[in-house]
Design brief:
Layout (H helix, E strand, L loop, with lengths): L4 H20 L5 H9 L20 E4 L2 E3 L2 H11 L6 E5 L5 H9 L2 E6 L2 H14 L4 E5 L12 E6 L8 H5 L1 E12 L4 E9 L2 E11 L16
Parallel strand pairs: 3-4, 3-6, 4-5, 6-7
Antiparallel strand pairs: 1-2, 7-8, 8-9
The structure holds S-adenosyl-L-homocysteine.
S-adenosyl-L-homocysteine (SAH) binds next to strand 2, helix 4 and strand 4.
Length: about 220
């Protein structure tokens, strides 16, 4: 079963507006902008918030979590530039929207989410959208997904006090990772790159606010 064509027609105009907004916020990579036209964000959101699918804003998806702001995700993709040969690790599947975008750019996407219900819901949406190259796991993403390492691209969609070493270890030679690093309430986006044995880390862009990365090598649950 594919996406509902009537709902899609209803949302098409809003989607164009969102793309204009993303462009206004500085992402002008045509391939990336076209992806935001192809992937219908509303099918990834719970019914109650579907009308907000094409606002350039974080949207609540239940379980105290939020789907990230689309322009920020576009910014992520323009920095990481996944290619058709790349193997990607995503930490924090959430609603699965970024997973779908990554699936259209890369060879395979492995995505870890700690909340089972969100992972199951993302799986249904990804199936409805029709991507076949995503593998989802329920678990603690701060330890990565060793079985399928190394990864050319690692995307972390939750905020961490530091860069988990396990994730650095699972980057390929030439691999790059984006992760928000900082305090619980405000972070800086860090780009981590590996070349041979050399690992560099540099801030990209301004302050961001993500939900906390909760796990063995990040924040502990309940604190904060
Ligand atoms: N890109 C997603 C972002 C969701 S918010 C979207 O747009 O929907 C971040 C997600 O990270 C939440 O769903 C949260 O449950 C998850 N998360 C937090 N800590 C995690 C961990 N240690 N491992 C895996 N997922 C985690």
């Amino acid at each position: 079963m594919g996406p509902d064509p009537l709902a899609d027609a209803r949302y098409a105009g809003y989607r164009r507006k969102l793309i204009e907004e993303i462009r206004a916020r500085g992402v002008d990579d045509l391939e990336i902008l076209q992806l935001f036209d192809r992937v219908q964000r509303h099918i990834f959101l719970p019914d109650g918030v579907q009308p907000r699918a094409y606002e350039d804003a974080p949207v609540p998806i239940g379980f105290s979590q939020t789907a990230s702001q689309p322009s920020l995700q576009a910014h992520y993709l323009s920095i990481l530039q996944p290619t058709p040969d790349d193997v990607v690790l995503e930490i924090g599947t959430g609603c699965g929207f970024l997973t779908a975008l990554l699936c259209l750019m890369a060879d395979r996407v492995y995505s870890v989410e700690r909340i089972r219900e969100l992972s199951q819901r993302a799986r249904r949406a990804l199936d409805e959208f029709g991507v076949k190259n995503a593998a989802l796991l329920v678990g603690d993403g701060t330890i990565g997904w060793k079985k399928y390492a190394p990864f050319d691209v690692i995307v972390v969609s939750a905020a961490s006090p530091s860069v988990p070493q396990a994730l650095v270890d699972q980057l390929s030679d030439g691999g790059r990772m984006l992760i928000p690093v900082g305090a619980r309430d405000v972070q800086e986006l860090m780009l981590v790159q590996k070349t041979g044995f050399a690992v560099t880390q540099e801030p990209v862009g301004g302050a961001v606010t993500f939900v906390p990365l909760l796990g063995r090598f990040a924040w502990t649950e309940g604190k904060g």
